[in-house]
């Protein structure tokens, strides 16, 4: 029996909380320490001045020792002076980068999925931003700052597991209540055609047991002769606080599974790394 170590980590563009810097060296150290076979990353920079111009997905992949990775841009542009983004004109909204696009493109920000297992195929989906902003705590700024939502996305990889294909999905959902619930439910419907078993990793911006209530419930039966749409029903594989990293009290970061045996989880842990205000969430699985 093989043990597969999977992790999700909102890396806060690789920023260290002790000094506010975001160099590629500390990010590489964090991913090497994590030592996972599959990693979903959120708040990933690509060619941004604030993080030393690094392609952070490529840096993370190098630390893991893999060339099986993709970065999905949620935004092409640079951070605005207070909050939000100043978009770059003329670039397609959804763009996926990998090793073949090394050095291409301007500054971007989004999510990444990395695997030490061979990837058979990739798939990406994007959700529009909610048309409103919310007052939130922003790292490095006192009090609350009104922050506009940003486009969200999910990146899927069908990997060659020890016993056949395995689907892994990485997501970073909206912080706007209701929008994130809708996005999570839509992921469940859109991934029904992908191979099982499945893993869903990411920062859902939904605390505690709320995501399980969304993805675990059964949909109501068909009405007026209309067929019920098939939807994946995941179960939570780890229930542990992940945020803030210096004193975790809330779980925003989740690992869900579908099609796994009841005893698949070998161990769960949170790891406080040298960067980010989130802990990484790690689940070891028997597969």
Describe this structure in words.
The protein is mainly beta. It contains four helices and 16 strands. It has helices at 24-34, 56-64, 179-190, 210-216, and strands at 3-10, 38-46, 68-79, 85-87, 95-97, 108-115, 119-127, 133-136, 145-148, 152-161, 164-172, 198-203, 235-236, 253-258, 265-271, 280-286. α3 links the parallel β11 (164-172) and β12 (198-203). α1 (24-34) packs across α2. The protein is globular.
Show the helix and strand layout.
Elements: E1 3-10, H1 24-34, E2 38-46, H2 56-64, E3 68-79, E4 85-87, E5 95-97, E6 108-115, E7 119-127, E8 133-136, E9 145-148, E10 152-161, E11 164-172, H3 179-190, E12 198-203, H4 210-216, E13 235-236, E14 253-258, E15 265-271, E16 280-286
Describe, in short, the structure shown.
The protein has 287 residues and is mainly beta.
Q: Please give the radius of gyration in angstroms.
A: 18 Å
Helix-strand pattern: EHEHEEEEEEEEEHEHEEEE
**End-to-end Cα distance:** 6 Å
Number of DSSP helices? 4
Low-confidence segments: 221-228
Shape: globular
Number of strands: 16
Helix percentage: 10-25%
The average pLDDT is 91
Class by helix and strand content?
mainly beta
Tell me the major beta sheet. Answer: 8 strands, mixed
Strand residue content:
35-45%
